[in-house]
Amino acid sequence: MADTNNFHEFLNEQDVLTSSDEFNQIIFGGGIGIPDPPPKRPPGDITNDAGSTALLTTQLLFAIPLGTISLLVFCYLRTRWNAMFAPRSRLQKLAPDPLPTTFFGWIVPLYNMPESHILERVGLDAAVFLAFFKMSYKLFTFCAIVGFVVVGPVKLTKYFDLLPDGNNDGRNSFDNVPNPQPIEETPETPGELAVYVILTWVFSLATFYFTFYNYLEFSNIRHRYYLKWKDTIAARTVMVTSIPKELQSDPALADFYESLGFGTVESAVVYRNVRKLRRAIEKRAKYLQKLEEAYVDYLNNPCKDPNYEPEEALKGFEKADDAKTANDNAAQVLSKVLANRPTKSLLLFGDKVDKIEYYTQKFFEYDKLVEVGRRGAYSTSSIGFVTFENIASAQLASQVLVHSEPFKCHTELAPEPRDIYWYNMAIRTREMFIRNVIVNVLIFFLVFFWSGPISLFASLLSLKSLEKFFPWLAHLAEKNEALKDFIQGTLPTLFVSLFNALLPKIMIFLSRLQGFHARSTIELSTFAKYYFFLLMNVLLVFSIVGSVFKNIEEISRNLPEIAYKLATTLPQVIFIIY
């Protein structure tokens, strides 16, 4: 420690270091000489800040306590609020096995839970999602251990060479070096280069191995999952789009697919334009939920009352023919569970009415509309569903052209009924094409112009901008080094992350606007748009703009060297990002 202090005092006397941050830069990879002025960067560019030890320390000091507190709060509330943190444990069927109630006892059983158990309880998507996280934990642990054990000592031995020798009679090892060379400019030894090359291959092969093993597990899980549902109606059904006019009836569609020779058709249904009926069903479900909430407010939790008998209450509702009879039957059963009946105002300043009576009346009103609507006749659309007697027939029908006219009777495997996005079922093929063109144009402008406002707003979070708008905060940051590091290193990153959190919401909206018929297709389209955004905006737009901005003065003086400058600076930006 004394040698380190002497070394620091010597450098201060030589006017080499001016702050502890520059000393940290020397110890952790910076230079010994007077640092060159930093190159110009585009507004909001924080890619090179990752090399700053102070900023990294600030982010770690901000993230580690926050993550630790969140973990402890979750462990404390997990067993107390199981309705929020473990809602599936309250299911009567397919409920997962209970986890230990100890503070950290849930971690090991959850990690060791077999994939088959997760697959049966929560489905294929959740099982694959959790398996990817488990694979990421294994890969990160392997790389971290190898990095600390191998790369750490190699780098530290190089940095320790800067420290003064203890056997030089008090003289510093830099006394005879007028202009010490920065450590990042010193050539690597052959041994260090060999270590870097070997570990590059080790990390790459480890990534390939873990990824391949995870994909192999996914293929096996997917195969077992679909074999379990091979006899369900969804597995034997195909969805047909662009149905011609002469086939837009249930018997005609069934006869057409029966004549193709794929197999026996069990049923065929052409989708009707039932927009009004769907709205009535949604309204009925809305008022049913409101009615349940009103009863919860009224009874609080009747299950704790010894006089509450849910079977009698259910029988009373089943025998009811109208809203008044239902309320009377419920009042008789729940007469001993008294509380203040909740009320609501019909308008902002209107009279208050009884919530339970109002929502019960509304529920029965829309229930009558649904009952009448189901008996009505509706116009057919160009979308239908055909169910075969075996899964092989459905697979054959989804893989071949079934109609002589192009783009007619496009057949694909039908999504599960819960997966169908019914709002888009009535959209015609021509309308879907127009929607796709509009959405793709919007995505193009979103990708190439999204970084502009983000960079502008992020640049406003710099100390110079804060000094203009909030001078008191800038002066406080100059006095407090931790606050200064937080503003320079963490705040812009946090702002950009929050701003980018809006992006998936926008992409989901655009995917729904395209007119896809399945929720899973909407999600896949959202992922594709987001991946395209990251690839084009971050890798191409940000890299090229950042490289041009850094070398704009040199490019303006010597235009023929534009290609050379881009070739030398683009790899630096790309490797920093990825």
Feature tags:
578 residues, mainly alpha, Alpha-Beta Plaits, four-stranded antiparallel sheet, two-stranded antiparallel sheet, 23 helices, globular
Structure description:
The chain folds into four domains: 52-226, no CATH class; 229-273 and 379-414, 2-Layer Sandwich (Alpha-Beta Plaits), CATH 3.30.70.330; 276-374, no CATH class; 429-577, no CATH class. Strands 2-5-1-6 form a four-stranded antiparallel β-sheet. Helix 10 packs antiparallel against helix 13 and helix 16 packs antiparallel against helix 19. The protein has 578 residues and is mainly α. A hairpin with a 6-residue loop joins strand 3 and strand 4. The chain is 61% helix and 6% strand. It has helices at residues 2-13, 20-27, 53-77, 82-85, 107-111, 115-122, 124-160, 190-228, 250-259, 275-299, 310-319, 323-333, 355-374, 391-397, 429-449, 451-459, 463-469, 471-479, 481-500, 502-513, 519-550, 552-557, 562-577, and strands at 237-241, 265-272, 343-345, 352-354, 380-388, 410-413. Residues 10-36, 40-51, 166-179 and 573-578 have low confidence and may be disordered. The longest helix is centred in the middle third of the chain and has 39 residues, at 190-228. Residues 235-424 form the CSC1/OSCA1-like cytosolic domain. Residues 435-572 form the CSC1/OSCA1-like 7TM region domain. This is 797_t:CDS:1. One of its GO terms (molecular function) is calcium-activated cation channel activity. It is found in: Membrane.
